[in-house]
Amino acid sequence: MSELARPKSGQKPLLSLRNINMTFGGIKALKNVSFDVLPGEVHCLAGENGSGKSTLIKIVTGVYRPEPGASIDYDGQTYSHMSPVTAQAAGIKVIWQDLALFPEMSVAENIAFQTVLGRWPRFVNYARMRETAIRALARLGVSLDVDLPLKEYPISQRQIVAIARALVGEAKLVFMDEPTASLTQSETDHLLDIVRTLSASGVAVVFVSHRLAEVLDISSRLTVLRDGALVGVYPATGMTQSRITELMTGKTFDHETRARDVSANPAMLEVEKFSRPGLFEDISFTVRRGETLGITGLLGAGRTELALSLFGMLKPRSGTIKIDGKPVRFSSNRDAIAAGVAYLSEDRLSLGLIQPQSIADNLVIASLDRITSGGLLSDDRKRALVARWIADLGIRIGRQGDAVSTLSGGNQQRIAIAKWLATDPKLLILDAPTVGVDVGARAGIFDIIAKLADSGLAIILISDEVPEVYFHADRVLHMAEGRIVNRFTPRDCTLQDIEAAVYA
After folding, report:
1. Domain 15-91+172-249 -> CATH class
2. What is the DSSP code (8-state) at residue 285?
3. CATH fold label, 266-340+426-504
4. Which Pfam families does this UniProt record tie to the protein (predicted)?
5. Rounded to the nearest 10 degrees, how much is the dihedral formed by the CA atoms of 306, 311, 313, 316?
6. For the chain, what are the domain ranges?
7. Which pLDDT tens digit goes with each residue over 90-122?
8. What pLDDT sits at residue 1?
């Protein structure tokens, strides 16, 4: 390919994979993939969910053994496969999306716990652990109270703790899986600065992210996978988000605003002077039938807290709500569901779905009253309800009884949406519905949202990614410090107008 990026002349890769194949249950997860990472390089591994990114990372880190014929060259050594012990000892580290940290333990313990592991019991030198943690954080230009429990820190600083833990093991190559998925723009900028610091110190970073703007900002090269096969390796210079999307999916996507004038539609939700001091103040707005109202703003703006109050999980101090013109007061989320309000949490992994439970059980859990007969659950009604929504939302599954954790991020999110649609809501609140979802699956989710709005459902779309609300909402509210500070109509403004207000 003319766009193929190759290492600079004479520069030897730190990692070089050749002829990597992997099969699960007769399905080819990786098909003859080759992949290089240079010393100190920030390299993006791009692809939709299910493209083989995680499988490739697990081969490098020794979790999976590739099929015979593979070659792994790392730091001057050649391997037919790695083992987890070999990879760890060689300085290959992974920071997974869930971070794999210990919230109840201190920052120091999270960073340095591996230094006290061994075959035989021994006393823990906590002073040395503190020193190790402080040195690792100092390498990143960060100062934290290492004695505090990790749970006291926000997700952005937990990311830093996970990176510092990798450095304790003298990391030479760090894989970062969706490190910015839960971060605001300012937190993302800080994390990217830390990645640049790692790169400047000689640590190679393989960056996996569905946020294509930051991919272009941080990476020097991109390796693109599609359906387990290598599409190509490309320089980040001159690349565009739309071109990456096309390479990842094999499709092109239109980027036009959807905003419509629905002012003639009857009001479905009316919120007046809604307040809960410390979280949000004096919130007033209306959502009409068939309307998608976008709410954006930085983390801490009060968006999620407002959503939780509308769903009966936080009680406001003052203000009123009307659903379909009738005043309502929610004592719990049960009251909200009974009134026709549904809420999709931003935290799909721990709040949106029960990962070990089956696809079917997750989908029906909010609408058990619809699948009971004579006071008992009806398997026939359950299967029919699940089959209906899987077909309506185009969800790709194996069997209804499979654990929901077996699905891709995009299909998990569709199950989470289907769970609430099965309650037959009047108002659907979507809090960051595309977190951890790749660009192709995002387009599918927004197609679903558009069809739901066209059918008359009132929707609140909450996102800290301004393009999402600009292109997919009819109106946009900008929240900051618990208040609505700006109101936009995408038909009458530009994307840059909203971004300038939000990121000012």
Report:
1. alpha beta
2. E
3. Rossmann fold (3.40.50)
4. ABC_tran
5. 50
6. 15-91+172-249, 106-170, 266-340+426-504, 351-424
7. 999 988 877 788 999 999 999 998 787 777 777
8. 35
